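Researcher: Next entry: Fe-S cluster assembly protein SufD (Streptomyces thermoalcalitolerans).
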Amino acid sequence: MAEAQNSPAPDAARAGGPPPVGSATTGAIAVAAESTVATRMSAPPSYDVADFPVPHGREEEWRFTPLERLRGLHDGTAVATGEGVKVDIQAPEGVTVETVGRDDARVGRAGTPVDRVAAQAYSSFEKASVVTVPKETVLTEPIRITVHGEGGVAYGHQVVELGAFAEAVVVIDHTGDAVLAANVDYILGDGAKLTVVSVQDWDEKAVHAGQHNALIGRDATFKSFLITFGGDLVRLHPRVTYAGTGGEAELYGLYFTDAGQHQEHRLFVDHNTPHCKSNVLYKGALQGEGAHAVWIGDVLIEAAAEGTDTYEMNRNLVLTDGARVDSVPNLEIETGEIVGAGHASATGRFDDEQLFYLMARGIPEKEARRLVVRGFFAELVQQIGVTDLEERLIAKIDEELEAAVA
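Model: Predicted structure:
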């Protein structure tokens, strides 16, 4: 794969890591570094939708989003219907599953809405699902949450809470057709370990927007995989904060953007506590006219967060003409007492040399292309640790590639 790599930023170097990125532009591929202060939000966080003006598309946090395709989620005209989505939760023995109201203390504890759609979701859901893993419980089977769209408009809220030293894997699977705004809270007790795999495998007309908040306790580990394939428009906002020292966050993402799709991932890691770590790696592939992927990676190291170690990387593979990537890594450091910090972004077209190398060894072109893209995503998929899901994702990637050459 030939990549457009940016020159290093002197203040973002990290020993042993890849070179950080400043800015680069290649045709319709744009990569830019900007101030984190400008990109995080234009209004203070709030649970009240009235505190956020209706976006017009010129705001920093909305400038990449085609607002008309949000189907009214951003301006209050999307009214929930009874046939919006169906949620099914399959949990191993020992896990508690509850349905609660907005006044439950766990709802919203991990983070406050930072844009109008997230606030609209919080203000509009009727009941929230709360999944609780008791302290010191180590699950050997995943918790599986299925969100299936049934053609309507829906608002939702999901909470996953792990007690101290608990360990769990949660798979959240989104399928069907819906217009959905839903927030998810992850609350990790001290020493807890949580792996979350959120799969957006919607039908082609679906719209999905939401904010994912993770509150990481002392010495806790949070690993997130955000996998996006389907939908007309998907706009997700993962956010991480730390509730104690020694917390670690690993945020991985995989997206495959087809013709006409808009897929947007906007991350924010707030290093507000000393001696915590974060690592971000998102990879995307794009094909077809009008395919548009947006990745915003904001990392803030606050003045109190001494001993922070952080790195973020976004890589994109453009398979055909007519696709566009906007990749914006941001890093703001308020203290010099850190272990390491850096960011990088690389976007390139399919490497003809790699293709020629494989074909010269007797591999047909179609199979060679599949092998290159599979290899591009393999390091992410293989880290999930759920065999049936890994196999399904690889099959989905193959299906996307089949469509490209059909």
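Model: Note for the record: Helices lie at 36-40, 116-124, 352-359, 365-381, 387-405.
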